[in-house]
From TrEMBL:
<dbReference type="InterPro" id="IPR015943">
    <property type="entry name" value="WD40/YVTN_repeat-like_dom_sf"/>
</dbReference>
<protein>
    <submittedName>
        <fullName>PQQ-binding-like beta-propeller repeat protein</fullName>
    </submittedName>
</protein>
<feature type="signal peptide">
    <location>
        <begin position="1"/>
        <end position="20"/>
    </location>
</feature>
<keyword id="KW-0732">Signal</keyword>
Amino acid sequence: MGRRRILTLAAGLSTTLALLGCTTTEEPPDLEREPKQASAELDAIDASDLQLPLIVEPLELVEPGWDLDVKHLGDVFLSARSGDERLDFSAVDSNGTTLWQAQRPTGCTGFTMTLDSEGQPLAVLTDSASDETCTTEVTASAYDLESGEQRWGPTEVPGPMQGPGAVFSSDDGDEAVALDPDTGETAEESSTSRVLGEFQGTILSVDEDTLSASDEGKTTWKIPLSDHDWNADGLTAFPDQTEGLIHLDAKDGSGPVIDAESGDILDDSASEIARDANSEMIITRDPQGLTVIDAAGTNELPVSLPKSVVLEAAVGGLIYLREGETLRVHNAATGSIARGYPAEGSGVVAVPDAFTSKGLGTLRAGDRTLLATDRVVEESAEGQR
């Protein structure tokens, strides 16, 4: 069993960074909306005031200045700095190089990533030429995630991005559409169905009897609602999703975790999920506790889970759980307490967030968002970072 280690978070954890969007209806200021290529390598930061997970300790950290939650596909990360007059979006690769930048009104915080039919990753940003709050005359445009080259848009949509994925809804919720990642046109849906989300090209909808997934206009799988006692009106998608999975709220904040490609139900009553991109393990929290799902099957871990505990992340075979201002790390194979941080350390605890299969990704340290790059730290003669 690993050495017991519970970390106190010096500056608290911010799982959702507050977005203070402007509430006026003034027109946005002049903005540089079209992505500008940058190819600028960000400088490494001094991380001596942080407690870093062991998995990133050898790596250089950069600070892109992001305030919004970070999304990533492959080795590219996307988010925005939130200022008084605009949002500054930037796409940064795992080397810590800014690939492109684009500006949007302060209220246009909705953005997502998706895949076209060729598997090319796209960034979808929202905009409004007339409304700084981005609630009227909203449009969406898609850009090549790596180059920033425009792929389609601007496409008029009924309102702000609702998600998950490229799904947009009017303020009253009466109209919701999903956009085709290839064309930006509204994906065709039956008049009797309701769109639940767009998951990297897979569009999920529900009608009175059936949950259906479609890709390029063709149905890929269906699940009868009666097989699982799901109610069509009560079925919604959680706003935060995990790559390759669909997580739905079927009742009271919990519901099925579905393989987006096959339609297989991996867990039928999960309230939280995480995916370890390194090991391909899926971790779900359900009434039985923590369950690890991988190619070998399912494994219920002997981990105490009071309601106040939050599943933060799964990286490198470790599970990060938060309870209040403390963090504890468990071995994903055994459930035992594990050593995720150096035995001795002080400062703000940096918690893993969005990671790639190569063990590179973002960390939240208080109100800062950092990116662990593929650049290795060159230690000083005194052995300091």
